[in-house]
Design a protein that fits this description.
By secondary structure, the chain is mostly helical. It has ten helices and no strands. It is globular.
Length: 188
């Protein structure tokens, strides 16, 4: 059996500080995301478990291409496990902020033609059918009200990639819902 090299105490302390900083930076957003997905009552437990797993594997997390992307994946795994254990789906459609987010998605970004859409459940179903990364970007941008830059940071991707995912998501939603996009918005 090979022994792991001993990590100097100074480096262990630095890694603990980096985890604490990561926790501080991401905790609020992770809680908001978990509330939307599993409801207010379970959100703290789900987020705490995700951070526990991340803390346990912090050394491995630091070796990843993107620690935020790795952490986000762990959070989503915890959310999925919680929902699956209870035979439930995400609670996004029941979220109090969902109506406001839908209106923002449809009016601020998609022009007046989308404003007439009052079928939040239909929209949610269409969002749920988007590829995972597009779903993440839509939820972060429109449900959790993150900026493009914050979304990029939390997902560990470039801002240009956020823009690309948003554009593709909007086009996919437009096709799925049968609502033409306003091409005067500078996208396409």
């Amino acid at each position: 059996m090979t022994e792991r090299p001993r990590v100097p105490a100074r480096l262990t302390g630095i890694r603990a500080v980096t985890f604490a900083a990561f926790h501080e930076l991401h905790y609020g957003l992770w809680m908001r995301y978990a509330r939307v997905q599993v409801g207010r009552d379970a959100a703290e437990r789900v987020v705490d478990r995700a951070f526990q797993h991340l803390r346990t594997g912090w050394e491995q997390a630091l070796l990843q291409e993107s620690v935020p992307r790795h952490g986000w994946a762990l959070l989503k795994e915890e959310v999925d496990a919680w929902l699956q254990a209870r035979g439930r789906g995400p609670q996004l459609a029941e979220c109090l902020g969902f109506d406001r987010a839908v209106q923002r998605l449809l009016t601020d970004e998609a022009g007046d033609r989308f404003a007439v859409l009052g079928e939040e459940i239909r929209l949610y179903g269409a969002i749920a059918e988007l590829p995972e990364r597009q779903q993440d970007v839509i939820v972060l941008r429109y449900v959790l009200a993150c900026t493009d830059e914050e979304t990029a940071d939390f997902l560990g991707i470039e801002t240009a990639t956020v823009h690309s995912h948003l554009r593709r998501a909007r086009h996919g939603l437009s096709r799925k819902l049968g609502i033409p996009l306003d091409h005067g918005d500078g996208e396409d």
